[in-house]
Amino acid sequence: MDKKTIRLLIADDHTIVRQALTSLLSLDSTMDVVGEAADGRSAVELSGKLEPDVILMDINMPLLNGLEATRQIRKTSPAAKILILSAHDNEEYILHVMQAGANGYLLKNGSAEDLYAGIRAVHAGHTFFSRTIPQVLIDHYARQVSLTDGPADRSSAGILTPREREILQLVAEGHTHQHIADILFISVRTVDTHCNNIMKKLNIHDGPGLVTYALKNGIITLPR
Question: 5, 15, 29, 67: most buried, per Cβ within 10 A?
Fold first, then answer.
């Protein structure tokens, strides 16, 4: 295989989207899709096993969202470049994702040429933004990187540990504590402890409050 071939991992919870992206990228002989993930947890696992050069990451995925998956991959597979593919163009939302460690942000209404360009740009070590993303946001991100020698995650969920953010998403998605324990291979008592800590840190005292918080902070979204 050509040494210049870019190894890609696609993470999106919609099968048809993954298939469409794979078909589209197969048209370029310099790109090779080596794996697909239907949720953020699988994306983290596959990034370690497959060692892709670039990960195309959706944001709204079950079990572990793209934002948290990006944070974890930055720690477990720091060499991988992450290009976010999202329908969201909210400025604060985009900034949170970039602060989590993504290398680029491409809106899903962009062209195939934008997709190819974004992949090549982040693979080469550059950042890449859709042309419709305001320049003021790009400049703000660049200033943060300059001041901190890297993107700093200052999102509202930053007070929670990675495990607490995982559990918050699962609780907000409606999973029982037993199911969460099964998914994360921990005890129900440990889940209970994490949930109590989450509520204390966020000053939230019931389940509906956690769901509202998760929605407001982009941890989960309403069904599409």
Answer: 67
Q: DSSP class of residue 90?
A: -
* Residue 140: HSE in the Cβ half-sphere, 13 Å Cα cutoff: 12
Kindly report, residue by residue over 19-55, the tens digit of the pLDDT: 999 999 999 999 999 999 999 999 999 999 999 999 9
Report the amino acid identity of residue 219: I
Pick from 102, 96, 101, 95: which is nearest to 134 by CA? 95
> Hey, where are the domains in the chain?
6-148, 156-216
Q: For residue range 143-175, what is the model confidence (pLDDT) as tens digits?
A: 555 544 444 444 445 688 889 988 998 998 889
Burial 34-67, CB ≥16 within 10 A → b, else e: bbbbbbbbbbbbbbeebebbbbbbbbbbebbbbb
pTM, to two decimals: 0.78
Q: Which fold has domain 6-148?
A: Rossmann fold (3.40.50)
Pick from 133-142, 154-163, 210-219: least confident: 133-142
Are 84 and 133 within 8 A, CB to CB?
no
Question: Domain 156-216, CATH 1.20.1440.230 — does that match?
Answer: no
C-alpha span between 122 and 105 (Å, rounded): 10
Contacts of residue 182, defined as CB under 8 A and 6 or more positions apart, other chains included, come to none
